[in-house]
Amino acid sequence: MAGMKSSLYQFLLRYFPFIVVFSTALYNPTDPDLGWHLKYGEYFFKTGTILKTNLFSSDMVDYTWVNHSWLMDILTYVIYRIGGFAGLSITGALIITGMVYFLSKTNRYSLWEKGVLFPVILVFLNPLLQISFRPQLVSLFFISLELFLFNKASKDSIKYGSLFIPLFLLWSNLHGEFILGLGLLFIWAFINSIDNIRNNKTRRIPFVLICTLCTLLATLINPFGIGIITETFRHFGNPLQRYIIEWNPLDIFSIYWWSLVGWVTITVFSTSMIIRKKNYRPFWFTFTSSTILILLSFWMRRYIWPMILVSLPLITEFVRAIKPKNQILAATIPITILISIYGYTITVKNPEISFLTMDWERYCQYISCSQNSVKFLLTIPDRSRLLTFYNWGGWLIWNYPEIKPSIDGRMSLWMDKRGYSAFAKYYTYEQNALDIDQSEYNLVYMSPTKPLYRRLKQLTQDGRWKVLFEDSNAAIFQRVLPQPSDILSN
Predict the structure, then answer these.
(1) How many CB atoms lie within 10 A of CB 199?
(2) Which domains does the chain carry?
(3) Residues near 450 by Cβ (< 8 Å), separated by ≥ 6?
(4) Ramachandran angles phi, psi of 466, nearest 5°
(5) Can you tell me the distance from the alpha carbon of 167 to that of 219, in angstroms, rounded to the nearest whole number?
(6) Which residues have CB under 8 Å from 331's CB, separation 6+?
(7) Quick one: which of 435, 488, 392 has its CA closest to 35?
(8) What's the CA gap between 248 and 216, in Å, rounded?
(9) Residues sharing a CB contact under 8 Å with residue 23, sequence separation 6 or more, in sequence order
(10) Read out DSSP for 249-299?
(11) CA–CA–CA angle 71, 77, 80 (5° rounding)
(12) Cβ atoms of 455 and 464 closer than 8 Å
């Protein structure tokens, strides 16, 4: 009997927390960009080449794009072809579970930390997790793996330092956020070198610096060469960022803003606690990188998720400080938390999302598109001057290749040498900053939630445009063109 109890405890200690993470991280893939990721992957298998030009939209047709997620598109397509939406959901959950595993190994979590911190991590990452499989999840996994290697290489740089090279070789071909990973690597290499000088281990410094340089060079091994780096840096200071929600700061006093403030408050408290104990030497990298990412998080919400992972050692110190001294209580609390979350997940959340039966019709419900509207759109002979809703671009590209959207999720930061941006043009019409009636478009396919829809309804009442189709999620408007008799009479 005692052996059974011991085995059950070992199971709870080792595996059950990760089972909870995996089941909780299962969501239906609802990324609006999913369609064009699949199309790029399909193009590779059909042609054997990587698509670098814009074939799928009607605007900026000659634009040459540095696709920093080209390999991710191929993997996404393979997973979808094998397992459909369910395969993408399971892969996304596995990536998150792997991320949490490496965070746990890096910070040497006991059952107490797993039970308390795993739910906290999932809550803070929830806005991203709800979209399920997407390239950004892979970058979070690589950041957690990078932090694990930092921990190992700090103790044995010769054995583990060289592993950064294959890590970044793969990462730089999967997602552009490898640039952030490089920044973390440079900070770690600098602090590690100083630490080696203090500890009279200067023989390690050349190896660390050589590995860092080789890692940087490894990122250039991709179909776009140095363009993969220059394209990423073009995002910084790009005026188009202000139109994209993840490149903007959180709304002050919103629930997410207060959550960020709460996280930062605990990190500051933990930092002061570590300094008082004079145990700060192992935390120099965490102090430095966390401070930078915290500042960036208040500037752009996109940096919040990497900041959570990097600053986690500070939060861990706080959680360890509040651990009950009573061993029974210290084991009962995290087990209770994990069992409660797991029970809710398998009885309420997962049956509700039904990820095994996800299809494009349900996907359409998530992104508020309309199957009936696009079927009607296909019956219109002339779609040459068509303006389409931004969020539906990827969905149209994959499901309805006969219809070329004017804009899609690839194009938010595209800007040609003349300074022209299809997205900036689209956005001014969508928000009714420019009058659609004065545009070159004769056909508009739009969501009823946008100011452009309300303007078109006014123009419809004035007889200048007409509604061809409308339901709760979409509307199709057509300009009322002058008849030949009207032209002759004028």
Answers:
(1) 10
(2) 13-353 (no CATH), 365-489 (3.40.50)
(3) 389, 430, 431
(4) -135, 155
(5) 9
(6) 9, 111, 112
(7) 392
(8) 29
(9) 93, 342, 345, 346, 350
(10) PPPTTSHHHHHHHHHHHHHHHHHHHHHHTT--GGGHHHHHHHHHHHHHHHH
(11) 140
(12) no
Closest CA to 13 of 160, 134, 122, 111: 111
pLDDT in tens, 419-477: 899 999 999 999 999 999 999 999 999 999 999 999 999 999 999 999 999 999 999 99
The answer to whether the CB of 283 falls within 8 A of the CB of 274 is yes
Residues 444 and 387 sit within 8 Å (Cβ to Cβ): yes
Distance from C-alpha of 34 to C-alpha of 73, rounded to nearest angstrom:
9
| Cβ count near 30 (within 10 Å) | 18
DSSP state of 483: P
pTM, two decimals, is: 0.93
CA atoms within 13 A on the CB side of 197: 7
Alpha helices in 1-110 (DSSP H): 2-14, 16-24, 34-47, 70-107
Tell me how crowded residue 200 is: count the other CB atoms within 10 A of its CB.
7
- Going from the C-alpha of 265 to that of each of 222, 257, 270, 294, 307, the distances in angstroms are 41, 12, 9, 11, 14
pLDDT tens column, 67-101: 999 999 999 999 999 999 999 999 999 999 999 99
- Exposed, middle or buried, 211 (CB in 10 Å: 0-12/13-18/19+)? buried
Query: In Å, what is the CA distance from 455 to each residue of 325, 432, 436, 460?
Result: 65, 7, 8, 9
Question: For tokens 């478009």, what's the residue?
Answer: 441
Q: Is the Cα torsion angle 291, 297, 303, 306 positive or negative in sign?
A: positive
Amino acid at 42: E
- Buried/exposed 164-195: b ≥16 CB within 10 Å, e otherwise: bbebbbebbbbbbbbbbbbebbebbbbbbbeb
